[in-house]
Amino acid sequence: MNTSTDFVQFEKLSLALPSEESWCKGKMYTCGGQCCLFGAVKLVTIGLIPAVGDAIKKHFGDRMGNIAEYGYLISSFNDHPETVWADVKKVIDEVEQS
Predict the structure, then answer these.
(1) Between 97 and 22, the higher pLDDT residue
(2) 40-61-78 Cα angle (round to 5)
(3) For the purposes of burial, counting CB atoms within 10 Å of the CB of 17, is it exposed (0-12), middle (13-18) or buried (19 or more)?
(4) Residue 2's pLDDT is what?
(5) Residue 24's pLDDT band (cuts 50, 70, 90)
(6) Distance between CA 68 and CA 46 in Å, rounded?
(7) CA distances from 41 to 10, 20, 36 (A)
(8) What pLDDT, on a 0 to 100 scale, did the predictor assign at position 1?
C-alpha cells in the first residue's frame, strides 16, 4: 500500500482499498499505508467522486442526511460511527459494477 509520501496511481478502487486492513477512519492516509475511502478515490481518479457519492446516497442516504457536496459526503460517510468495512466495500463494489 501507499504512504503519504509515496503515491501510486491505481486503476480501480478495489486495488487502492483492497481490504479492511488497508482502510482507516479519521485520516486520509496513515504512515502505516492505510487510507480512507476518499483517499482511495484520490489514488484512482477524482473523476470517481460523483459515482462514489451517488453509491453512498443510494445505499446509506438515510444515515448521511442531506449532505450535497460529494467530497464532504464521502469523508463523512467513511468516518461515520456506524460505517464499517462492509459498508465501504459495498460502495466500492457498486462503483466498479457501474
Answers:
(1) 22
(2) 30
(3) buried
(4) 44
(5) very high
(6) 17
(7) 9, 16, 9
(8) 46
The CA distance from 42 to 36, in Å, is: 10
Q: Which of 3, 15, 18, 68 is nearest to 44 (CA)?
A: 15
3-state secondary structure the chain: CCECCECCCCCCHHHHCCCHHHECCCCCECCCCCECHHHHHHHHCHHHHHHHHHHHHHHHHHHHCCCCCHHHHHHHHHHCCCCCHHHHHHHHHHHHHC
pLDDT in tens, 56-73: 999 999 888 888 889 999
Measured distance CA(35)–CA(15) in Å, rounded: 12
Q: Which residues contact 3 (CB under 8 A, 6 or more apart)?
A: 29, 31, 33
Q: Is the pLDDT of residue 49 over 90?
A: yes
